[in-house]
Amino acid sequence: MGRWCRARSLLSLHSTLTSLPFQFSHPHPRFSSQLLHPPPPFQNVGFIGLGNMGFRMANNLIKAGYKIAVHDINSNALKAFSDMGIVTKETPFEIGEVSDVVITMLPSSSHVTDVYTGPNGLLQSGNVLRPWLMIDSSTIDPQTSRKLSFTISECMLKEKKGHQETPVMLDAPVSGGVLAAEAGTLTFMVGGPEEAYLAAKPLFHSMGKNTVYCGGAGNGSAAKICNNLAMAISMLGVSEALSLGQSLGIDASTLTKVFNSSSARCWSSDTYNPVPGVMEGVPSSRNYDGGFATKLMAKDLNLAATSAKEVGHNSPFTYQAQQIYTDLCQDGHETKDFSCVFRHYYSGKDET
Length: 352
Hints:
CATH superfamily of the largest domain: NAD(P)-binding Rossmann-like Domain
CATH architecture of the largest domain: 3-Layer(aba) Sandwich
CATH topology of the largest domain: Rossmann fold
Main location: mitochondrion
Largest sheet: 6 strands, parallel
Distance between the termini: 61 Å
Number of helices: 15
EC number: 1.1.1.31
Helix content: 40-55%
Family: Belongs to the HIBADH-related family. 3-hydroxyisobutyrate dehydrogenase subfamily.
Shape: elongated
Strand content: 5-15%
Number of domains: 2
Enzyme class: oxidoreductase
Catalytic activity: 3-hydroxy-2-methylpropanoate + NAD(+) = 2-methyl-3-oxopropanoate + NADH + H(+)
Strand order of the largest sheet: 3-2-1-4-6-8
Protein backbone atom coordinates (compact mmCIF):
# COMPACT_ATOMS: atom_id res chain seq x y z
CA MET A 1 0.00 0.00 0.00
CA GLY A 2 2.85 2.39 0.94
CA ARG A 3 4.59 1.79 -2.38
CA TRP A 4 1.39 2.51 -4.30
CA CYS A 5 0.84 5.73 -2.37
CA ARG A 6 4.36 6.86 -3.11
CA ALA A 7 3.98 6.09 -6.81
CA ARG A 8 0.62 7.89 -6.92
CA SER A 9 2.14 10.93 -5.23
CA LEU A 10 5.09 11.06 -7.62
CA LEU A 11 2.84 10.71 -10.64
CA SER A 12 0.68 13.50 -9.28
CA LEU A 13 3.78 15.62 -8.82
CA HIS A 14 4.87 14.95 -12.39
CA SER A 15 1.40 15.84 -13.70
CA THR A 16 1.47 19.11 -11.77
CA LEU A 17 4.87 20.05 -13.16
CA THR A 18 4.04 19.26 -16.77
CA SER A 19 0.78 21.23 -16.56
CA LEU A 20 2.65 24.45 -15.73
CA PRO A 21 3.16 27.11 -18.45
CA PHE A 22 6.70 25.93 -19.27
CA GLN A 23 7.04 22.59 -21.03
CA PHE A 24 9.95 20.36 -20.11
CA SER A 25 9.96 18.43 -23.37
CA HIS A 26 11.47 21.34 -25.30
CA PRO A 27 15.18 21.50 -26.23
CA HIS A 28 17.64 22.61 -23.55
CA PRO A 29 18.12 26.30 -24.57
CA ARG A 30 14.61 27.14 -23.37
CA PHE A 31 15.07 25.88 -19.83
CA SER A 32 17.19 28.66 -18.39
CA SER A 33 14.64 31.30 -19.35
CA GLN A 34 11.61 29.27 -18.29
CA LEU A 35 12.79 28.00 -14.89
CA LEU A 36 13.19 31.41 -13.29
CA HIS A 37 10.55 30.35 -10.77
CA PRO A 38 11.09 26.63 -10.01
CA PRO A 39 8.09 24.59 -8.90
CA PRO A 40 7.78 24.27 -5.08
CA PRO A 41 8.98 20.63 -4.80
CA PHE A 42 12.39 21.76 -6.10
CA GLN A 43 12.55 25.21 -4.53
CA ASN A 44 15.47 24.39 -2.22
CA VAL A 45 18.22 22.30 -3.78
CA GLY A 46 21.27 21.12 -1.89
CA PHE A 47 24.42 20.34 -3.87
CA ILE A 48 27.32 18.37 -2.41
CA GLY A 49 30.59 18.03 -4.33
CA LEU A 50 31.98 21.12 -6.08
CA GLY A 51 34.79 19.65 -8.15
CA ASN A 52 35.32 20.30 -11.85
CA MET A 53 31.93 18.84 -12.71
CA GLY A 54 29.86 19.67 -9.65
CA PHE A 55 30.93 23.32 -9.57
CA ARG A 56 29.57 23.87 -13.06
CA MET A 57 26.43 21.81 -12.54
CA ALA A 58 25.54 23.76 -9.40
CA ASN A 59 26.21 27.02 -11.21
CA ASN A 60 23.76 26.04 -13.96
CA LEU A 61 21.10 25.33 -11.35
CA ILE A 62 21.65 28.83 -9.98
CA LYS A 63 21.31 30.29 -13.49
CA ALA A 64 18.05 28.38 -13.86
CA GLY A 65 16.63 30.11 -10.80
CA TYR A 66 16.88 27.45 -8.12
CA LYS A 67 17.63 28.36 -4.52
CA ILE A 68 20.87 26.51 -3.81
CA ALA A 69 22.84 25.53 -0.71
CA VAL A 70 26.25 23.92 -1.28
CA HIS A 71 28.85 21.89 0.57
CA ASP A 72 32.36 20.71 -0.24
CA ILE A 73 35.47 19.89 1.78
CA ASN A 74 37.36 22.41 -0.40
CA SER A 75 37.06 25.78 1.31
CA ASN A 76 38.07 27.63 -1.87
CA ALA A 77 35.13 26.13 -3.74
CA LEU A 78 32.77 27.14 -0.96
CA LYS A 79 34.16 30.67 -0.94
CA ALA A 80 33.52 31.03 -4.67
CA PHE A 81 29.83 30.33 -4.07
CA SER A 82 29.69 32.36 -0.87
CA ASP A 83 31.07 35.34 -2.77
CA MET A 84 28.10 34.99 -5.15
CA GLY A 85 25.71 35.13 -2.21
CA ILE A 86 24.98 31.40 -2.22
CA VAL A 87 24.35 29.61 1.08
CA THR A 88 27.19 27.30 2.11
CA LYS A 89 27.09 24.60 4.78
CA GLU A 90 29.87 22.85 6.72
CA THR A 91 28.45 19.31 6.58
CA PRO A 92 26.22 17.17 4.35
CA PHE A 93 23.79 16.86 7.27
CA GLU A 94 23.31 20.64 7.33
CA ILE A 95 22.61 20.58 3.60
CA GLY A 96 19.85 18.03 4.13
CA GLU A 97 18.26 20.16 6.82
CA VAL A 98 17.58 23.03 4.37
CA SER A 99 16.88 21.12 1.15
CA ASP A 100 13.90 19.60 -0.63
CA VAL A 101 16.22 17.82 -3.04
CA VAL A 102 19.90 16.90 -2.57
CA ILE A 103 22.27 16.28 -5.50
CA THR A 104 25.68 14.70 -4.92
CA MET A 105 28.62 14.70 -7.34
CA LEU A 106 31.57 12.94 -5.72
CA PRO A 107 34.78 11.13 -6.73
CA SER A 108 34.12 7.56 -5.57
CA SER A 109 31.82 5.05 -3.90
CA SER A 110 33.49 5.59 -0.52
CA HIS A 111 32.92 9.35 -0.72
CA VAL A 112 29.26 8.83 -1.58
CA THR A 113 28.77 6.36 1.27
CA ASP A 114 30.42 8.76 3.71
CA VAL A 115 28.27 11.70 2.60
CA TYR A 116 25.11 9.66 3.13
CA THR A 117 25.90 7.49 6.15
CA GLY A 118 29.05 8.98 7.72
CA PRO A 119 29.23 10.83 11.06
CA ASN A 120 28.12 14.13 9.51
CA GLY A 121 26.18 12.54 6.67
CA LEU A 122 22.72 13.15 5.34
CA LEU A 123 21.38 10.32 7.52
CA GLN A 124 23.08 11.52 10.71
CA SER A 125 19.79 12.06 12.52
CA GLY A 126 18.56 8.53 11.78
CA ASN A 127 15.79 7.56 9.42
CA VAL A 128 13.83 10.83 9.33
CA LEU A 129 14.75 13.14 6.44
CA ARG A 130 13.59 16.48 5.11
CA PRO A 131 14.59 15.98 1.43
CA TRP A 132 12.02 13.97 -0.53
CA LEU A 133 14.50 13.24 -3.34
CA MET A 134 18.19 12.31 -3.41
CA ILE A 135 20.06 12.34 -6.73
CA ASP A 136 23.57 10.92 -6.92
CA SER A 137 25.41 11.90 -10.10
CA SER A 138 28.72 10.34 -9.07
CA THR A 139 30.25 7.51 -11.09
CA ILE A 140 30.18 4.60 -8.64
CA ASP A 141 29.47 0.88 -8.64
CA PRO A 142 25.84 -0.25 -9.09
CA GLN A 143 25.94 -2.24 -5.86
CA THR A 144 26.59 0.86 -3.75
CA SER A 145 23.83 2.74 -5.59
CA ARG A 146 21.36 -0.06 -4.87
CA LYS A 147 22.32 -0.32 -1.20
CA LEU A 148 21.89 3.42 -0.69
CA SER A 149 18.60 3.42 -2.56
CA PHE A 150 17.29 0.70 -0.25
CA THR A 151 18.54 2.55 2.82
CA ILE A 152 16.81 5.78 1.70
CA SER A 153 13.57 3.89 1.00
CA GLU A 154 13.55 2.69 4.62
CA CYS A 155 13.54 6.28 5.91
CA MET A 156 10.58 8.56 6.58
CA LEU A 157 9.93 12.16 5.58
CA LYS A 158 9.72 14.85 8.21
CA GLU A 159 6.80 16.29 6.25
CA LYS A 160 4.63 14.34 3.85
CA LYS A 161 4.59 15.27 0.16
CA GLY A 162 0.97 14.53 -0.57
CA HIS A 163 0.60 10.82 0.15
CA GLN A 164 4.35 10.27 -0.04
CA GLU A 165 5.83 9.33 3.32
CA THR A 166 9.28 8.04 2.31
CA PRO A 167 12.14 9.72 0.41
CA VAL A 168 13.33 8.46 -2.96
CA MET A 169 16.79 8.11 -4.50
CA LEU A 170 17.92 8.25 -8.13
CA ASP A 171 21.37 7.29 -9.38
CA ALA A 172 22.04 9.68 -12.26
CA PRO A 173 25.68 9.73 -13.44
CA VAL A 174 26.56 11.96 -16.37
CA SER A 175 28.43 11.87 -19.65
CA GLY A 176 29.98 14.79 -21.49
CA GLY A 177 32.83 15.93 -19.28
CA VAL A 178 33.75 19.39 -18.05
CA LEU A 179 32.88 21.19 -21.29
CA ALA A 180 29.36 19.77 -21.30
CA ALA A 181 28.97 20.56 -17.61
CA GLU A 182 29.95 24.15 -18.38
CA ALA A 183 27.59 24.41 -21.34
CA GLY A 184 24.72 22.60 -19.63
CA THR A 185 24.66 19.85 -22.26
CA LEU A 186 25.33 16.78 -20.12
CA THR A 187 23.62 13.44 -20.66
CA PHE A 188 22.10 11.88 -17.53
CA MET A 189 21.75 8.10 -17.22
CA VAL A 190 19.10 7.58 -14.56
CA GLY A 191 18.21 4.60 -12.40
CA GLY A 192 15.47 4.39 -9.78
CA PRO A 193 11.67 4.73 -9.66
CA GLU A 194 10.42 5.94 -13.03
CA GLU A 195 7.90 8.27 -11.41
CA ALA A 196 10.72 10.06 -9.57
CA TYR A 197 12.70 10.27 -12.80
CA LEU A 198 9.78 11.93 -14.58
CA ALA A 199 9.25 14.37 -11.72
CA ALA A 200 12.96 15.27 -11.61
CA LYS A 201 13.35 16.01 -15.32
CA PRO A 202 13.29 19.80 -14.80
CA LEU A 203 16.39 19.51 -12.62
CA PHE A 204 18.22 17.34 -15.14
CA HIS A 205 17.33 19.66 -18.00
CA SER A 206 18.73 22.63 -16.10
CA MET A 207 22.13 20.93 -16.15
CA GLY A 208 21.99 18.87 -19.37
CA LYS A 209 20.21 18.33 -22.65
CA ASN A 210 19.66 14.56 -22.63
CA THR A 211 18.22 12.14 -20.09
CA VAL A 212 17.93 8.38 -20.51
CA TYR A 213 15.87 6.33 -18.10
CA CYS A 214 17.77 3.09 -17.56
CA GLY A 215 15.45 1.19 -15.21
CA GLY A 216 15.58 0.37 -11.51
CA ALA A 217 18.00 1.44 -8.80
CA GLY A 218 21.65 1.06 -9.80
CA ASN A 219 20.96 0.87 -13.53
CA GLY A 220 22.13 4.43 -14.12
CA SER A 221 25.45 3.58 -12.49
CA ALA A 222 25.66 0.36 -14.52
CA ALA A 223 25.03 2.28 -17.74
CA LYS A 224 27.76 4.79 -16.90
CA ILE A 225 30.50 2.26 -16.21
CA CYS A 226 29.57 0.35 -19.39
CA ASN A 227 29.68 3.59 -21.38
CA ASN A 228 33.14 4.45 -20.02
CA LEU A 229 34.34 0.90 -20.59
CA ALA A 230 33.39 1.16 -24.26
CA MET A 231 35.00 4.61 -24.46
CA ALA A 232 38.28 3.33 -22.97
CA ILE A 233 38.45 0.33 -25.28
CA SER A 234 37.65 2.40 -28.38
CA MET A 235 40.37 4.90 -27.43
CA LEU A 236 42.86 2.05 -27.12
CA GLY A 237 41.81 0.66 -30.50
CA VAL A 238 42.05 4.02 -32.28
CA SER A 239 45.39 4.82 -30.63
CA GLU A 240 46.83 1.42 -31.51
CA ALA A 241 45.68 1.65 -35.14
CA LEU A 242 46.94 5.22 -35.60
CA SER A 243 50.29 4.30 -34.06
CA LEU A 244 50.60 1.25 -36.32
CA GLY A 245 49.66 3.39 -39.31
CA GLN A 246 52.44 5.86 -38.55
CA SER A 247 54.92 2.99 -38.21
CA LEU A 248 53.80 1.80 -41.66
CA GLY A 249 54.35 5.25 -43.13
CA ILE A 250 50.78 6.68 -43.11
CA ASP A 251 50.32 10.18 -41.72
CA ALA A 252 47.95 10.26 -38.73
CA SER A 253 45.78 13.00 -40.28
CA THR A 254 45.41 10.98 -43.46
CA LEU A 255 44.55 7.79 -41.60
CA THR A 256 42.06 9.70 -39.47
CA LYS A 257 40.31 10.87 -42.66
CA VAL A 258 40.11 7.24 -43.72
CA PHE A 259 38.63 6.22 -40.36
CA ASN A 260 36.11 9.03 -40.33
CA SER A 261 34.81 8.26 -43.79
CA SER A 262 34.64 4.51 -43.29
CA SER A 263 33.79 1.78 -40.82
CA ALA A 264 36.40 2.69 -38.15
CA ARG A 265 34.72 6.01 -37.40
CA CYS A 266 33.95 6.58 -33.70
CA TRP A 267 34.03 9.29 -31.05
CA SER A 268 37.72 8.67 -30.33
CA SER A 269 38.61 9.31 -33.98
CA ASP A 270 36.25 12.10 -35.05
CA THR A 271 35.69 14.08 -31.84
CA TYR A 272 38.53 13.31 -29.40
CA ASN A 273 41.45 12.27 -31.58
CA PRO A 274 44.46 11.21 -29.47
CA VAL A 275 47.23 12.23 -31.90
CA PRO A 276 48.71 15.71 -31.36
CA GLY A 277 48.17 18.05 -34.31
CA VAL A 278 45.29 16.15 -35.90
CA MET A 279 42.44 18.02 -34.21
CA GLU A 280 42.16 21.38 -32.47
CA GLY A 281 40.51 21.97 -29.12
CA VAL A 282 41.06 18.47 -27.72
CA PRO A 283 43.49 17.43 -24.95
CA SER A 284 45.99 15.95 -27.42
CA SER A 285 46.42 19.46 -28.88
CA ARG A 286 47.46 20.86 -25.48
CA ASN A 287 49.87 18.23 -24.17
CA TYR A 288 46.95 16.13 -22.88
CA ASP A 289 46.09 18.69 -20.20
CA GLY A 290 42.47 19.04 -19.11
CA GLY A 291 39.78 16.62 -20.17
CA PHE A 292 39.12 13.29 -18.44
CA ALA A 293 42.06 12.34 -16.21
CA THR A 294 43.72 8.96 -16.69
CA LYS A 295 43.28 8.21 -12.98
CA LEU A 296 39.51 8.64 -13.37
CA MET A 297 39.44 6.29 -16.33
CA ALA A 298 41.45 3.76 -14.32
CA LYS A 299 38.95 4.12 -11.48
CA ASP A 300 36.00 3.52 -13.80
CA LEU A 301 37.68 0.49 -15.35
CA ASN A 302 38.24 -0.88 -11.85
CA LEU A 303 34.50 -0.50 -11.24
CA ALA A 304 33.75 -2.31 -14.51
CA ALA A 305 36.21 -5.11 -13.74
CA THR A 306 34.83 -5.58 -10.22
CA SER A 307 31.25 -5.63 -11.50
CA ALA A 308 32.17 -8.16 -14.19
CA LYS A 309 33.72 -10.47 -11.60
CA GLU A 310 30.73 -10.18 -9.29
CA VAL A 311 28.33 -11.37 -11.99
CA GLY A 312 30.76 -13.89 -13.50
CA HIS A 313 30.94 -12.12 -16.86
CA ASN A 314 33.74 -12.93 -19.32
CA SER A 315 35.32 -9.52 -20.04
CA PRO A 316 38.88 -9.89 -21.38
CA PHE A 317 39.08 -6.40 -22.93
CA THR A 318 37.97 -4.90 -19.61
CA TYR A 319 40.89 -6.42 -17.75
CA GLN A 320 43.39 -5.50 -20.48
CA ALA A 321 42.20 -1.89 -20.55
CA GLN A 322 42.27 -1.80 -16.75
CA GLN A 323 45.90 -2.92 -16.73
CA ILE A 324 46.98 -0.42 -19.39
CA TYR A 325 45.44 2.57 -17.63
CA THR A 326 46.71 1.39 -14.24
CA ASP A 327 50.22 1.24 -15.73
CA LEU A 328 49.83 4.78 -17.10
CA CYS A 329 48.94 6.03 -13.63
CA GLN A 330 51.88 4.22 -12.05
CA ASP A 331 54.17 5.77 -14.67
CA GLY A 332 53.17 9.25 -13.52
CA HIS A 333 50.51 10.22 -16.07
CA GLU A 334 47.48 10.01 -13.81
CA THR A 335 46.56 13.70 -14.20
CA LYS A 336 46.85 13.73 -18.00
CA ASP A 337 43.80 13.13 -20.19
CA PHE A 338 43.14 9.46 -20.84
CA SER A 339 43.88 9.92 -24.56
CA CYS A 340 47.54 10.27 -23.55
CA VAL A 341 47.61 6.48 -23.94
CA PHE A 342 48.59 7.16 -27.56
CA ARG A 343 51.80 8.95 -26.59
CA HIS A 344 52.82 7.11 -23.46
CA TYR A 345 51.80 3.55 -24.33
CA TYR A 346 51.79 3.21 -28.10
CA SER A 347 54.13 5.79 -29.58
CA GLY A 348 57.03 5.24 -27.17
CA LYS A 349 57.46 8.97 -26.55
CA ASP A 350 57.56 9.29 -22.78
CA GLU A 351 57.11 13.08 -22.72
CA THR A 352 55.46 14.96 -19.86
